[in-house]
Write a structure and sequence with these properties.
The protein has about 475 residues and is of the alpha/beta class. The protein is built from eleven helices and eight strands. It is elongated.
């Protein structure tokens, strides 16, 4: 047996892993639920009334304030443009405010994008007002912190929150730079009475200090959110582990009880048949029928015993299962070193394959049965391709592809049925166990086969799923 290994890392996969959860990617249902709750508790009852007051203040400042009725000549045109932008900003705020207020009637994905847009547009409006209020020395600098804390309170995704706060910080810097560009006669800093390089140096230090303080606040908010996310994830994982352990134990007890209840009447039937065979007169027909009864009872008993091993739900403890490690263990079990199989194993593993809560034996048994099935289909000679990847919702995809003879279309729908087999010595439980154990963790099994070209079995395991009890 020979092996080749290739880590399948495409630029697209790297970008998805880096920007997972950002603007163009859906959040997970659990994280979106947290976002919805924050909007309901913070954005709607608190931020919306404050927004109304802010809009009124901006309206007065831009259109009616006598203190700024005659701006410096270099900023006069800027003020006119800002007035036009304010009208659009007011209309935008009114529309998004209505959406947020009626959030229960809005799709979560739309509401999520609306909130992100509001944060960005608010930061841009703030930058415009900073241009008219002395740039880097603007007293509205402290409003930037209000926007940062608002984003921290509403946005639940740490990466998105950091990006939005960096945009807010960038808008402050952009507003200050545009003020310096539009009014070159203005001083850089607060020490306007100072002259020479010392005053200018002091001004630059003040600008850098304000910018760094804003960035530091954004990073601190990000760090707090990351810690909160980890704590929440650990609590959810612990709850999920406990629930799965309870379900597995309950299912194991149920399977044992059913097997016990079936074995008892089978034992009685077997004893009665044995007694009947000893007491009846010798006769070819009746002895044959008694033999058939005992044979079928024994067969039923074997089936129940096998099904006890087939369910095997209560053995072991739940742990974090490394799918790639269990897949490699199954490869070594099915193709042990020094074996005479002429099979080449080719691996195509992507990055960030999630670990799943479960029992290692369940996953190892799934992979081993798929590999045994491929080995026997190829008569111990050919190529097997193992693939692993994860998608946006952190589900794990594992596929086993062989270049054997393939499966006839008429048998595709039967291969997962217990005791269905086309092999003289097969039990017909291998693929049934694959389907059972995969669905136990909320997963699905897909099969594609072309006669003469091989078969591919693909498994999907969701990152977060509850153990499903089979009826």
């Amino acid at each position: 047996m020979s092996s080749t290994y290739r880590m399948d890392v495409s630029p697209e996969m790297v970008m998805k892993s880096v920007f997972r959860g950002l603007w163009l990617t859906d959040l997970s249902p659990a994280r979106r639920a947290v976002l919805m709750e924050r909007i309901r508790l913070v954005e709607r009852p608190l931020i919306l009334p404050i927004k109304v007051v802010v809009l009124g203040a901006l309206l007065w400042f831009l259109f009616f304030s006598k203190a700024f009725s005659i701006p410096p000549p270099s900023l006069a045109a800027t003020k006119e443009y800002l007035k036009l932008f304010f009208l659009g900003y007011a209309a935008f705020s009114l529309g998004t405010g209505i959406i947020v207020w009626g959030m229960d009637e809005v799709a979560p994905l739309i509401l999520e994008r609306v909130v992100y847009s509001v944060v960005i547009v608010d930061a841009v409006m703030m930058a415009g007002v900073i241009i008219l209020t002395n740039g880097f020395n603007s007293s509205l600098y402290w409003v930037c912190f209000t926007l940062v804390f608002r984003c921290f309170a509403v946005v639940s995704h740490a990466d998105v929150q950091l990006v939005l706060n960096l945009i807010t910080s960038g808008c402050f810097v952009l507003g200050g730079l545009l003020y310096q560009f539009l009014d070159p006669a203005s001083d850089l800093g607060p020490a306007k009475s100072n002259e020479g390089s010392f005053g200018q140096a002091t001004a630059v230090e003040t600008i850098l200090l304000r910018t760094l303080l804003l960035l530091l606040t954004s990073v601190c908010c990000y760090a707090i959110q990351v810690l909160a996310d980890r704590k929440r994830a650990q609590a959810e994982e612990a709850e999920q582990f406990a629930l799965k352990q309870h379900q597995l134990a309950a299912a194991g007890r149920l399977a044992g009880e059913i097997a016990h209840q079936l074995k008892n009447p089978l034992g009685i039937i077997n004893n009665a048949a044995y007694t009947l065979a000893k007491t009846v007169k010798e006769g070819k027909t009746i002895t044959q029928q008694i033999a058939i009864i005992r044979e079928e009872v024994a067969r039923s008993d074997r089936i129940i015993t096998e099904l006890m091993g087939y369910a095997r739900l209560a053995e072991g403890r739940l742990e974090r299962v490394n799918l790639l490690r269990e897949l490699e263990t199954a490869v070594n079990d099915v193709f042990p070193p020094g074996s005479s199989f002429e099979v080449e194993i080719r691996r195509e593993y992507g990055p960030l394959i999630p670990e799943l809560p479960g029992q290692t034996g369940h996953f190892r048994e799934v992979f081993a049965n798929l590999l045994i099935n491929a080995r026997e289909a190829m008569n111990g000679r050919g190529e097997i391709v193992l693939s692993a990847r994860s998608d946006e919702d952190l589900s794990a995809w594992i596929s086993v592809r062989d270049n054997g003879p393939g499966i006839p279309p008429t048998q595709i729908n039967q291969i997962f049925e217990p005791y269905f087999t086309t092999k003289p010595t097969g039990t017909g439980l291998g693929l049934a166990i694959v389907k059972h154990n995969t669905e136990l963790y909320g997963g699905v099994v897909q099969v594609e086969s072309v006669l003469g070209r091989g078969t591919t079995f693909t498994l999907k395991f969701p990152a977060r799923s509850l153990v499903r009890l089979r009826k």
